[in-house]
């Protein structure tokens, strides 16, 4: 399936053990895997595994023999003798890569950040600083189904060898990468994110230069976070050239001065150039007393200058413990040049001096206390120099908009492919094509092209395909052009004539790429470099996987006359067509997952002036999902596995979690771990019922026994508990995977997923909202099911005459005894044409049509865990939908209504005001508010007042507001028009006005309903803080006259529904405030809790409800759970369209 990455706002694997963890000493490793500091004795550290393309594979980017054929034949007389990006203000500060072998990410982003500055900088004027952690993690993590289900599993990764014990973090961050890996990740718009958003720390915000025991993983949702988009990756020619590239050696080395000129021009015009080289030292040395300080084999520490004068590819068997190789093992960034650096700068020994003067000014990633403020000189004539690369970006404007809105692509492995197809390997007439389908009304503005040789000619054609097209040219030619590109690499080619695309239109991009070595097929090839002597020595092997589906990519060997799907190519077909390995022989193409797609992307903009989609479809609109005759989410991969409640009474919690899981799947926000394990119904029901306030909310007296798992519990009560921040959590063995008699109190406010909203539909037992009925309820339920996820329902599950086992369908006729609703399920689809004949003759509905229902009795019941229930089933009560989102790290909730919405209050008429006054407990941003509406198409207005008092919630300064309409009753989470900066100790009020169209109970309230044997009792815990003090809410009919609603005697919806006065006691209104920390570290900051950089105490607050000090204290134990949550739940995104709004 094509992945359209949606914008809002080649294989040098450089593992580089050359990290400052060993700057002075190799730390000792404790039993728990953490590192402790060693003494100041110099200890050599192995550079680590390195697997890179052969010189022969990289030679494609070099200039051909004969200056007349070179793209940069100019002599360079226009270039200064010295140039330094640092002096021009277009280089970013030196960074520190410790504790990982992630040099390649620092070299990449140094180039990218510099290019931003050359272009004039970011719109907000901030110094660009992008996330190396994001690039390192996703460079060695395959694409997840949340990002692209059709290409899931594609990419590069590392696998442990037998007996190895590395953590996932150690495995990923030390497996390394290269500029091909960087190009693959960044060209897919996977980054680059701001460092502030994804810092170079573990999940708890901890960074230690010697400690590799932490968890540095990232959730799949962070893959697409991007502050800038990479649109070009320029593979510059290398000054180090070998006349026999298949057998490179000192003897056949030559220096290419034109390549040096090309790099200089790139530095001047585009910014820093990433480059790889052989680092002589296995550790940075800064101490003059260090035995290695002075002059090494190739590096002079007195002048901070390097020159490698020998190219050695194999170790001497006579000295197996010595690594004599001088192939590239470290990645850095060139930030300038100096032609005046003399040969003597590199060594006093003439034999170690380059033939001529001149050196690159190179920025390292070992901190600014190493070298010359973190930099050093690298001779133009260094034989180990390789892969000079420039990364060019597309900057967003002040509104956060990029040049292109969407990136259609299949090639996530792309330039990272270990198998490098040789130019000319598929013949001189080969062409490539990708076929896409527009997801909206758009304009195709540009395409990508990947070239092998400098000076390549790229011919591009765009076809609008016929409906019955089977090949990439079966349609109308809409655009064509030919471009010459100066260098090899990845390029964005803007179309001279953009092509308008209608939603659903299939189109193809056809390319023919011709270079001086022949015509090139840019094909992904996943391979294993079996010849790499470093493989497996570190306890891991580096692996790749390519994914190609029929109908996506095509190639033609005869210039486009006939076409073949790339899925017809086998590993054997491709094996002999790739470049040799660096270590002799050829990489082995994987028999399965070895051949991928062709490397062509398509960039579109949303059609100018196209109307925004209507949020609420017109019932008369033929595209309204409510008018579809059938819908089955199983056919679209929008379901999670069927769970099994066993012998418990927990159908309500199981149905609730099924609905919540479905909402995440619909939003592409459910990780594979969440889908497999599920959200825990046991945690949900336990903390919805256990606790002082929970017992009171359930009407239990002190003498009544605790039994959280008996008697059943409705989805409404589960939703109220989730809204209070108590869950939902992913099932974890030994913690939340069973009906434990007791659960750790520290888990009470744990949540991987938070409840973002609900939609209350019907309730046969008597609702306290404006309930839907009949056709209106059915239409609303269908719309939710088709667009947002499943809805919960209750029905009679007894299997008598009402159940047909052959067709797995239920129908209970009206006015029948013994058929009361007794079981909650999740309604996931429908079929208007489900035959009434499928039901039993003794009890059969009059008309066709049934709901598709997901049960919680395991997959061996019914139709693999599903069944049908007639629209006309008299016991059926379609009740509510639950919508979830990933819990934001650091989010705090202010609330008084922990029991949630249990009734609705009238203050006279269809409108009313509700308010809560809170005190900020840290420096934070108030950006969202949660409340409940009780009517259909309810209009709401939200206000935030700074300095308000209990006497006047609307007093003080009005600092934020928002307004809108809520279609259905239920919880709603809304964003303020502008976030509000709050200081610790500051008082603020959240005020909500709601206006129903006909329902006279507009205000959602929390109520206490005592046991009938104790009428008039007052709650001891509800409506009170941990210290027993009242938590006061306010209501008003007009926003001027405010009263405290606490107590009995109010006009409540449930009292009216029962035909008499309510026996419930109002405690608080359902209005909550959601905040995020203002500390740059991402934790609570100095005003939140100690360890504001993300440590245990800092994490505690985000998992506890603000205002409950006992919960805050207990939540410190949840740090590990919080870290797991961040990795397990992907951020919400539009289905099949990923927003780059996490910048």
List the helices and strands and how they pair.
Blueprint: E1 3-6, E2 13-14, E3 28-29, E4 35-36, E5 50-51, H1 55-58, E6 82-84, H2 85-88, H3 103-118, H4 132-139, E7 155-160, H5 168-174, H6 179-187, E8 229-235, E9 240-242, E10 253-255, H7 257-270, E11 273-277, E12 299-300, E13 305-306, E14 330-338, E15 359-363, E16 375-379, E17 386-394, E18 406-409, E19 431-437, E20 442-451, E21 456-465, E22 475-485, E23 488-501, E24 506-515, E25 518-520, E26 523-525, E27 527-528, E28 540-545, E29 553-556, E30 564-565, H8 571-575, E31 588-589, E32 595-598, E33 602-606, E34 630-631, H9 651-666, H10 672-677, H11 681-689, H12 692-697, H13 715-723, E35 753-760, H14 774-787, E36 791-795, E37 803-804, E38 809-810, E39 823-831, E40 850-854, E41 866-870, E42 877-886, E43 892-894, E44 903-905, E45 911-919, E46 924-933, E47 938-946, E48 957-966, E49 970-982, E50 987-995, E51 1003-1008, E52 1033-1036, H15 1053-1057, E53 1065-1069, E54 1071-1077, H16 1096-1100, E55 1105-1106, H17 1109-1114, H18 1119-1128, E56 1137-1138
Parallel strand pairs: 1-56, 13-16, 38-41, 43-55
Antiparallel strand pairs: 1-18, 2-5, 3-4, 6-14, 7-28, 8-17, 8-23, 9-10, 11-14, 11-17, 12-13, 14-15, 15-16, 18-33, 19-24, 19-29, 20-23, 20-33, 21-22, 21-24, 24-25, 26-32, 27-31, 29-30, 34-39, 35-42, 36-39, 36-42, 37-38, 39-40, 40-41, 43-54, 44-51, 45-50, 45-52, 46-49, 46-54, 47-48, 47-50, 51-53
Helix pairs in contact: 3-4, 9-11, 11-13
